[in-house]
Amino acid sequence: MANYYSGRIAEHGQTAAGVDWNSQAGQIMRFNQLLKVVDSSQPYSIADIGCGYGALLDHLSQLGHATRYIGVDIALPMIEAARSRIAASPDVTFRLANSPGEIVDYSVASGIFNVRLGRTDEEWLAYLVETLDMMNISSRTGFSFNCLTSYSDADRMRGDLFYANPLDLFDLCKRRYSRRVALLHDYELYEFTMIVRK
């Protein structure tokens, strides 16, 4: 996976395509869904799991959110791009890792469950749940993530992508993490966002 995403940013640079999205508008739409988990009326800390080149941090700044931001990615070129682009600050950290390494108020993950390459559905679902377990442990107040939906049009689905069943993941989140779970499946993309509040 690190090699896959390293190749994307090498080919497309610090753009939405560089983190494997079709458009910047879609990327922003995803951020807005994921950020429904946060209470922005007060400062908060947030871990961006699979941060890429740090586009979520740009979006948080544009929204005027006061945050302590930790960007985490498994692809070194992504972390290098983020560090070269964003000025060093005590409130911003980029880490080459698969977890934030500390407890934060919120964790979000955008797109990290989509590209499975040659993995089976069972293998990929195990990775997904393991990652959600990590996000739950790392988050004081809540976490959110998105997945491609199994309700996508069959003729548009690709074999190298993972299409999650939103109902199964809603049930898992309700039983495993919190009674306060929201499934957002009403925006204009072939995906859904899950919000887990503690």
Give the rounded overall mean pLDDT. Answer: 90
Structural class: alpha/beta
List the domain count as a whole number: 1
Major beta sheet, specifics?
A: 8 strands, mixed
CATH architecture: 3-Layer(aba) Sandwich
With helices defined by DSSP (H or I, 4 residues minimum), what is the helix count? 6
CATH topology category name: Rossmann fold
H/E order of the elements?
HHEHEHEEHEEHEE
Looking at the structure, what is the overall shape?
A: globular
The CA-CA distance between the termini, in Å, is 30 Å
Question: Any idea of the CATH class?
Answer: Alpha Beta
Number of strands: 8
Q: Which keywords apply here?
A:
8 strands, 198 residues, Rossmann fold, 8-stranded mixed beta sheet, alpha/beta
Layout of helices and strands:
Blueprint: H1 2-12, H2 24-34, E1 44-49, H3 55-63, E2 67-73, H4 76-85, E3 92-96, E4 104-109, H5 121-138, E5 139-149, E6 163-164, H6 166-176, E7 180-184, E8 191-197
Parallel strand pairs: 1-2, 1-4, 2-3, 4-5, 5-6
Antiparallel strand pairs: 5-8, 7-8
